[in-house]
UniProtKB/TrEMBL annotation:
Lineage: Eukaryota, Metazoa, Ecdysozoa, Arthropoda, Chelicerata
Residues covered by the C2 domain: 191-310, 324-457
Organism: Caerostris darwini
GO MF term list: calcium ion binding; calcium-dependent phospholipid binding; clathrin binding; phosphatidylserine binding; SNARE binding
Protein name: Synaptotagmin 1
Name of the gene: Syt1
Gene Ontology CC terms: axon; dense core granule; plasma membrane; synaptic vesicle membrane
GO term, biological process aspect, one: locomotory behavior
Keywords (A to Z) from UniProt: Calcium, Cytoplasmic vesicle, Membrane, Metal-binding, Repeat, Synapse, Transmembrane, Transmembrane helix
Homology family: Belongs to the synaptotagmin family.
Record's bilayer topology term: Single-pass membrane protein
Amino acid sequence: MGVRGNPITKKNLDEAVVVCRVQCRMGRIESYLQRLRKNSETAAEETGAHIMREAGGPEPPKAEPPPVQVPSAVTAVLESNATVEAMVTEEPLGEKIMHEIADKTHVPVWGIILILIGIGLLLVCICCCCLRRWCKRRKKDKKGGKGGVDLKGMGFLGDAYKEKVQPDEEDLQDNMEDNEGEKESEKSEEKLGRLQYKLDYDFNSNNLAVTVIQAEDLPGLDMSGTSDPYVKVYLLPDKKKKHETKVHRKTLNPVFNETFNFKVPFAEITSKTLVFAIFDFDRFSKHDQIGEVKIPLNTVDLAQTIEEWKDLTSVEGEQGQENKLGDICFSLRYVPTAGKLTVVILEAKNLKKMDVGGLSDPYVKIAIMMNGKRIKKKKTSIKKCTLNPYYNESFTFEIPFEQIQKVQLMITVVDYDRIGTSDPIGKVVLGCNASGTELRHWMDMLASPRRPIAQWHSLKDPEEGQDN
């Protein structure tokens, strides 16, 4: 069944059924009213005729039947049926709006429905993404808030921080592995800059004139991000005569243009190696070597003047195993608000053999220095007969934020001797006037307050006259 040419749908069928029911009900009511009216007319005629027959007079004219009294129930049914019919014939508000939009946009109703569904799905996806991101951030904050704080045996001091801080070992292990990987990649990819020089040999006077012209792209070893470079020039293997250029302050591209002369007979010069060693000058501590250039003179054509550039190479791998002191790993954590520096000595490896049996009894001393004076010191336990000790011991120093840039942290590995004097194996100095990896570790600590930063360091020669 179709309504006004519309396609047959379940809704149209339902409406048609309702209309039919209403019409049937109204037809029944009309037939009932007709029968009622007819019965009332018949009853009135019979009553009038009976009265006239008894009186003997003529039959009265037919009177109009009295108005039919429609029961109230029937009236209510009629009114409700009329209301239902009006509701059935009237179009719903939602469909009316949809049809109006379809007429204005020339888009079919099903197309508008699909668009609304798509918008709803998009909003649901956006809400899910926001909720997932919020949950992930909350989870990350909770994970970051997990401290390496050992709560056993500690009391709260109001809002103050703990006296003893133990970092999370898993976080430190990950940090150590990352630093080891970074260290290996730095060794393979680290650029130390390059050096330009000129060689001119005079066969008549047996004089080798070496000119240091310039260097460029040197690494910054000072806290300011620059260096104070100078160059040492000497011949191997004797090292008897060394020349030095002037120090150039705060530059990574120094221009020297200085010439040095070496008296070497031509018969001996082919067995010599010319060395350019570039250092970073430091007034208050040992000068750090940036890199070097080695030129075996038997590979050079001295019959002509040579002027060329050479890349600097690291000297760490060429010092020999006998000069290797070992490595130490420790973490640093500084809380500016509490003014507390926490040092966790984790482990050391490949330490230099100090005892007759080929082993050592190492322990670690931690000292806070200011203006060249030791103001605080602590030390770890002694590990017997090992070159790879494991400590995992924590030490806390109170250093106000105003002084953190003025102090030095000196970590020294010492070989314990029961009889006699304990011998220092090597040391690492961080903080004020530090350079290289030590400076980087210190700056990383300051840039990440409240977070332990672990890193491996190569031990350097200990200072003479250091206390044991």
